[in-house]
Amino acid sequence: MIETRNLTKRYGNLIAANDITLKLDQGDVFGFIGPNGSGKTTTMRMIATLLAPDHGEAYVCGKSIYTDQEEIRRLVGFMPDFFGVYDDMTVIEYLEFFAATYRIDGSRRRKVVEEKLELVDMAFKRDAMVNELSRGQTQRIGLARTLLHDPQVLLLDEPASGLDPRARIEIRNLLRRLGEMKKTVIVSSHILPELADVCTRVGMIEKGHMIVDGNVAEVMRKARQRILLHIRVKDRTDFAASLLEQQDSVEKVSISRDAQIEVTLKPDVEDYSDLPTALVQSGMAITLFREEEVNLETAFLQLTKGLVQ
Question: How far is CA 217 from the centre of its chain?
Fold first, then answer.
């Protein structure tokens, strides 16, 4: 559905996007992660044919961004991070205006608008003035506007920017529903833990370079260089820690202030079933034994260097 090959954009001496290569299939929800100025918006605008690249190629549903721009614009819904709304227009008038620009005829227009309002859970605001909506409600109306022409591909630039926790949850649920509808979605965001819940794939971009691209599980594995275990025993914590330190799979053992044993395994060790066995055979009663999870935020910090343009 989306394929880019060495997509590059320069502004003078600044390379905003540097050889971006990406391939997404139908139904993929791709989390595009990176700091401000890393090249996310530039890449999305090139895919949407709103910005001409200096080098490289991109295809949307098999259509080239150079030769098939009008067709691509019919296939793509692009939602910028901030967009203006018109004064003195109700929500229904606002959406009908944009539906008309998509050449949705009058007999279908109201039905399409009502359907999109239902999809984004904003039907209750159909007669409200658009300039009186909250930030979260405005974002949902913006998403409804983006969906009016039923695009196959959605490019959503920071849709959760500036939202309160409840509004972010609502946007996350909407993204999940779009994936279920088999839309191909690229969504950029700084709300990293929440992206992991809805994205099938993630890409991390830094200083114009795509440094990570893969499914969420692959990225987590790449970020986790060593497994960290949290263990607690009923008593004799020092003895248990000493016993664990002697195991071949263990690199380091420490005890926290609350008497929890933290065990770092050696690189590439995946099987640690010998550790609880050794404790039980030595008469230890285990009350806690868990592996520390690597979330998307941790992965981002592990795999990037914090560079900006």
Answer: 13
